[in-house]
């Protein structure tokens, strides 16, 4: 399901770029990527019915689940991370453990409906106070309270997120829209598999052939 969500986000971004693209060659490559993403989304296996999925999980017995879904918010003094866990309020307090360091925390919830749940955050964006940080158990939720060492706004949770955002901004924040699109295409080519490289190369060759026939202006 997480992979499907990523594909759908990629498709939405490609569609947005298509609306901005004016050069034929770039549109050809973006259209090829759009069709590929649509095909990948179409071929994703349908999600299991909830009952079947729950039955499969329960048949596996006790095991550890890594928590990937969470929400977060902040005040002047705290970073607040919200983790939904059905029935967590029924556990003994010692079954919910959070360990803090100045730049990380990890959560362990033991024996919740026969499973253990873990979540780890490393390289927090800014330092936190270990003594001032804590957890709160609410109905179907664990709230992790990270006390900020300095009362300032965090733009994201981790250093990795910040670096990723800065790289994206540097790649696309340009006064020339076609330059931003070319940066995207270079990234797609560099990170793509053989099929992706063939698709981009094919679009390039076809555009050059059309250019030589005079179908499109020579400056494209």
TrEMBL record:
<dbReference type="InterPro" id="IPR007052">
    <property type="entry name" value="CS_dom"/>
</dbReference>
<keyword id="KW-0597">Phosphoprotein</keyword>
<dbReference type="InterPro" id="IPR037893">
    <property type="entry name" value="CS_CacyBP"/>
</dbReference>
<dbReference type="InterPro" id="IPR015120">
    <property type="entry name" value="Siah-Interact_N"/>
</dbReference>
<dbReference type="InterPro" id="IPR052289">
    <property type="entry name" value="Calcyclin-binding_UBL-bridge"/>
</dbReference>
<dbReference type="Pfam" id="PF04969">
    <property type="entry name" value="CS"/>
</dbReference>
<feature type="domain" description="CS">
    <location>
        <begin position="65"/>
        <end position="158"/>
    </location>
</feature>
<dbReference type="InterPro" id="IPR008978">
    <property type="entry name" value="HSP20-like_chaperone"/>
</dbReference>
<dbReference type="GO" id="GO:0005634">
    <property type="term" value="C:nucleus"/>
</dbReference>
<keyword id="KW-0007">Acetylation</keyword>
<feature type="domain" description="SGS">
    <location>
        <begin position="143"/>
        <end position="220"/>
    </location>
</feature>
<dbReference type="GO" id="GO:0044548">
    <property type="term" value="F:S100 protein binding"/>
</dbReference>
<dbReference type="Pfam" id="PF09032">
    <property type="entry name" value="Siah-Interact_N"/>
</dbReference>
<dbReference type="GO" id="GO:0015631">
    <property type="term" value="F:tubulin binding"/>
</dbReference>
<keyword id="KW-0963">Cytoplasm</keyword>
<dbReference type="GO" id="GO:0031625">
    <property type="term" value="F:ubiquitin protein ligase binding"/>
</dbReference>
<keyword id="KW-0539">Nucleus</keyword>
<dbReference type="GO" id="GO:0005737">
    <property type="term" value="C:cytoplasm"/>
</dbReference>
<dbReference type="InterPro" id="IPR037201">
    <property type="entry name" value="CacyBP_N"/>
</dbReference>
<dbReference type="InterPro" id="IPR007699">
    <property type="entry name" value="SGS_dom"/>
</dbReference>
<comment type="function">
    <text>May be involved in calcium-dependent ubiquitination and subsequent proteasomal degradation of target proteins. Probably serves as a molecular bridge in ubiquitin E3 complexes. Participates in the ubiquitin-mediated degradation of beta-catenin (CTNNB1).</text>
</comment>
<keyword id="KW-0833">Ubl conjugation pathway</keyword>
<protein>
    <recommendedName>
        <fullName>Calcyclin-binding protein</fullName>
    </recommendedName>
</protein>
<dbReference type="Pfam" id="PF05002">
    <property type="entry name" value="SGS"/>
</dbReference>
<dbReference type="GO" id="GO:0007507">
    <property type="term" value="P:heart development"/>
</dbReference>
